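Hi R.,

Quick one: here's the Lipopolysaccharide export system permease protein LptG sequence you asked about.
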Amino acid sequence: MDKKTEKRFSLPGLGGLTIIDKYILKRYLATFGVMLLLFIPIGIVIDVSEKIDKMLENKIPFLDIAFYYYNFTIYFANSLFPIFLFLSIIWFTSKLANNTEIIAILGSGISFARFLRPYIIGASIVSILVLLMGFFLVPSASEEFNNFRYTYLKGGGKEAMHGDNTDVYRQINDHEFIYVNSFNPETKMAFNFSLEKFKKEQLMSKMTASRIKWNPEDSTYTLYDYTKRTVGAMGDKIEKAPEKKFRFAFDLEDLTPLVYIAETLSLSELNAFIEKERKRGSSNINVYLVVLYKKYSVPVSAFILTIIAVSVSAMKRRGGMGTNLAIGIAIAFAFVFFDKIFGTIAEKSSFSPLVAVWLPNIFFGILAIYLLRNAKR
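And here's the predicted structure, written out as tokens:
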């Protein structure tokens, strides 16, 4: 855009934003907000229709239900924000194209790359908002949302929160390993307990008990049918007792963390938790890493989807807005599909979580570059 055109469309006091920039940016943010306001109530209605029977059966207080849907709104909006953003851009950009406003803007001497500037500013605002929500607001909302679901709505109740509680084997530090045949998180009691201590891959001692129980009054554990074998150079030492109390530097709940624990932690807590689980040799480490990497990859997708949406919808087509929306919906659901597929592959296999989380952005980033080049022509 030449200087005369820039001056003609500029607005004073807006840090270099022109009238066109402000017009498009307003439409970008307003349409995205309206899209959220339209789809979130629909999501709530569908969720209520599916769960109303269990809510009435369990006689859940109204305030608990209201709080659940407050957290549901945050959880739902964060999960599906790429679709909402993509469709909103397709919608208002198609209207601009159908009204020949884009032709007028480009005909005034503004390049297509310059035309994209307010879209990139809008994507930056949305990305920062999503990033901050993912770090601070979504974890607490996810915790309350999932607690409600597992307490009142899902089969298995609270016990299902901890996933598989049988044949649990964990490393609790560099030298000690715990095994329990089964664990009840409600009573904080485990059965067929053993604690092995190693030094340079050599067994130093092994403690066993038919049952171990947490004592909240004095923060100790009671071991029933206790036996301890200490390996010695001149012979092993055996210690037995029908019942004995100990203080351990671990929590029985650490044996089987909540299945959704990673979603409920802030960024610093999640990093510390992953490091602790890595030292323990957790088999769920990939699940936690996927959650961590998505906190960074999802905001980046706002830029990629914005460029794709503008490139697809800036052209006036014979089918009008309907054609653009059909293309947009197909691309948006393809993005979400690949995002979920690669995330699941990383969680269930040895595939790198970092690569799995960023592959959809890489694939659709290449698509964005290709579509942008075509749109410029």
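The first helix runs from residue 3 to 9.

Cheers,
M.
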